[in-house]
Amino acid sequence: MKHIDTIIFDLGGVLIDWNPEYVFLDAFNGDREKMQWFFQNVCTSDWNENQDAGYPLALATQDLIKQFPEQEYYINMFYGDWENMLGGAIEGTVKILDTLIKSKKHKVVALTNWSNETFPIAQKRFEFLQWFEGIVVSGDEKTRKPFKDIYDITLDRFNITPENSLFIDDNLRNIEAANALGINGIHFENPEKLIQQLKNYNIHL
Questions:
Q1: DSSP states along 55-76
Q2: Which domain holds residue 136?
Q3: I need a surface site. Which of 32, 75, 143, 159 has the fewest CB within 10 A?
Q4: What's the structural domain count of the chain?
């Protein structure tokens, strides 16, 4: 069994609940079909990920309004009301993180796709973000998962040996990219399953 000395956590979807539906379902008066059309055609996940890689929010908003002037109200809402897209902490995973930190058996860091303009909001809200040895924020690095550069930055910054590290992310695409670099990965689904998956790496909570 591989000896794991470092655990790398993703944040959104693993430790923090973030979902634009919290804002837009109300904005579209509960019309889920209209909301999904908006996400698929206007404020798409690809568009949002570009800001995760450091593109300025104001420019991104202006770009989209030029393309979809009739959607200006809703486009402005995406980052204007971004804070309300943040749900609470995913408490079960926070408990796992707390146990791992207190055990002092592993180096524990985070690697997140997150705009450097909005990440400070999360830092103020979630105390556990101070627990990590360090956090690599894609918006600061001007690149993002699943691109190789951001994994290399993380490995180098914290002196991590890929084969001795374990990466936990809710996006399978990001896990597969990590695996390609020799990093072990767990595709996160829920805290209860994560406890069982950690046992496969001889990590017992």
A1: --HHHHHHHHHHH-GGGHHHHH
A2: 6-17+88-199
A3: 159
A4: 2
